[in-house]
Design goal:
With about 575 residues, the chain is of the alpha/beta class. It is about 35% helix and about 20% strand. The protein has a ten-stranded mixed beta sheet with strand order 13-22-21-14-15-20-16-19-18-17, sandwiched between helices. A five-stranded mixed beta sheet has the order 3-2-1-4-5. Strands 8-7-6-11-12 form a five-stranded mixed beta sheet, sandwiched between helices.
């Protein structure tokens, strides 16, 4: 049985293919189009998923769509009517897109894919819930979903048992923790639905001085975590922006302009926002535990990508185990609706738990050899042991390496297949990779990847974190990895096992053999404003535009200094569009 899941038309469009219960492939559309957070119909991702599954459209038994467009349209119309006439500019911009495209999702699917079979639609938060629970290791678990908004829901909780997913309680738009966080993201001068993680990274530089102001004026939080926003201060329900003049007057400063100076005020506000967010999520989770008395929790939705809040739930609630699916945002809805059809609607047995996210395209050495030859690039082909020892040595010599191996990751994090790697022991690598390679803000932290079996020696954390969705404190006696230690002593942690990615695991093992350190800097193979690289062409382009020293494509090692000057001056050398 072949089931294709699709998510699109808001942000982070994606597709996923489930074949006889096995997740064969899943990918974001942005990786193929090079348009970050691409919201369009995921034609390229679908084409890849079918190719990976060795099937055609005619072989599909079902296509699932991750939300219900007409229910969402009803919410949008009711919201515009309730806030009329202030909502007219937003209404005028949104209606053509809905009337020409989004309302016709079934017809679009049939036309673009030439598909004649059944199309099933799941509610947005059901897709989120299914994406977390049905691929989790738990037979029974509480489920918590938090995001901006689906159709009407913004926050839900429920229970998963066997193949059943049941949502019990919900909070409706416009009261949304995701939009609350995005409003501050906008006010702080960052891009909404793109840069919320920057706000999370900025927070440790500040003090939560505005916590009381936020709790008094902007959000009313009950003991059970339910909340209401004071919509006098937010305008996203009626305008093309997130906050207005009243919000700015509350904090005594205008909205920060993009790329302008970051002051202590902005850092303190980010810290205050994160504290409020942590408290809301923890209160909901504690209430959910009281309601269900279950020891396992599954989380999904864009807010579940906030690894600081996730870690607070782990530390401050009775839940013993937490599973967060790696593509917890809207992209994960494609996976969720596919499994909801296969497991919940059709009653088929659940798959093994999802223990890795390597579900995208891969390129073998024959392809890579032809690619390098086509671009007239000299490269050394190394066997496995030579590759590991050479790359580990280059890292110890303080080179920065682009690492392109195996299948691309699903979700927003690079986890060892499309990564930029460096030595975490050198504090200068933090600045160098941020400013000269990633071209991003200097305050942004880097994540460490550590061998799973060495975790407890370096971090105060007692379980694997394969998807980089939790933070952990670096142990006081192991402050030897400053390039991945944030200002508050924390790190956004990734653990790796040989089963998940044998080559990457063994590279870190070889680095440890040479240095005594089982940790590497791991940041996504891209620069600010662009998606993670997908193809060898993407990787080479990114490599040529930055100060990376070496590029590893499969078994091939490319040295920047060996590339002729004429090649360096090709059309690859263009300015990056900042976000």
């Amino acid at each position: 049985m072949n089931i294709l899941g699709i998510s699109c038309y808001y942000h982070d469009s994606a597709a996923a293919l489930v074949q006889d219960g096995k997740l064969i492939s899943a990918a974001h559309e942005e990786r193929f189009t090079r348009k970050r957070h691409d919201p369009d119909f995921p034609e390229h991702a679908i084409e890849y998923c079918l190719r990976e599954g060795k099937i055609s459209i005619s072989d599909l038994d079902y296509i699932g769509f991750y939300d219900k467009p007409m229910t969402k349209f009803d919410r949008i119309l009711q919201t515009y009517l309730a806030t009329w006439p202030r909502s007219f500019p937003s209404f005028f911009k949104a209606m053509p897109v809905w009337l020409n495209e989004k309302m016709w999702t079934p017809q679009t699917i049939r036309k673009k894919l030439e598909y004649e079979g059944p199309i099933l639609f799941s509610e947005h938060h059901v897709s989120h819930a299914a994406s977390a629970f049905l691929v989790s290791p738990f037979e029974e678990a509480a489920i918590l979903t938090l995001d901006g908004v689906g159709e009407w829901d913004t926050t839900t909780y429920g229970i998963g048992r066997g193949t059943s997913v049941e949502l019990l309680k919900t909070i409706h738009f416009p009261h949304s923790l995701g939009l609350f966080y995005s409003a501050f993201t906008y006010y702080l001068g960052f891009k909404v639905n793109s840069a919320e993680y920057k706000v999370m990274g900025l927070a440790p530089y500040g003090d939560p001085k505005y916590y009381d102001t936020i709790m008094k004026h902007l959000i009313d939080v009950k003991d059970d975590g339910s909340f209401r926003l004071n919509m006098d201060y937010f305008v996203y329900d009626r305008a093309l922006t997130m906050t207005g003049r009243k919000f700015a007057r509350l904090f005594g400063q205008p909205r920060r302009e993009q790329e302008s100076a970051m002051t202590q005020f902005h850092k303190d506000l980010a810290a205050s926002l994160q504290k409020v967010t942590d408290e809301v999520v923890v209160r909901i989770a504690n209430h959910l535990h009281r309601e269900t008395n279950l020891s396992n929790l599954c989380m999904a939705g864009g807010v579940a990508l906030n690894c600081v809040a996730n870690s607070k739930v782990l530390a401050q609630t009775p839940f013993k185990n937490i599973f967060v699916q790696p593509a917890a945002g809207d992209a994960g809805g494609a996976l969720g609706v596919a499994y909801y059809i296969y497991n919940t609607i059709l009653g088929n047995p659940r798959p093994p738990s999802m223990d890795h996210a390597f579900l995208g395209p891969s390129y073998d050495d024959n392809f890579l050899e032809s690619f390098l030859s086509e671009h007239h690039l000299s490269a050394k082909k190394l066997d496995r042991n030579e590759l590991l020892s050479t790359v580990a040595r280059l890292l110890t010599e303080q080179n920065v390496v682009g690492w392109f191996q195996g299948r691309m990751e699903y979700g927003p994090r690079a986890l060892g297949s499309r990564s930029i790697l460096a030595d975490p022991r050198n504090p200068e690598n933090w600045k160098r990779v941020n400013l000269k390679i990633k071209f991003r803000e200097s305050f942004r932290p880097f994540a460490p990847t550590i061998l799973e079996d060495r975790l407890g020696e370096y971090f105060d954390f007692d379980r694997p974190s394969p998807f980089m969705l939790f933070v952990a404190q670096v142990r006081d006696d192991r402050r030897t990895i400053p390039a991945v230690t944030h200002v508050d002593g924390s790190a956004r942690l990734q653990t790796i096992s040989r089963k998940q990615h044998g080559l990457y695991y063994d590279l870190i093992g070889e680095f440890e053999r040479q240095t005594g350190c089982p940790v590497l800097i791991n940041t996504s193979f891209n620069v600010r404003g662009e998606p993670i690289v997908c193809t060898p062409e993407d990787a080479l382009t990114c490599f040529m535009r930055t100060d990376m020293d070496y590029l590893v494509l499969g078994s091939y090692l490319v040295e920047k200094r060996s590339i002729p000057a004429g090649v360096k001056d090709t059309s690859w050398q263009k300015a990056y569009e900042l976000d």
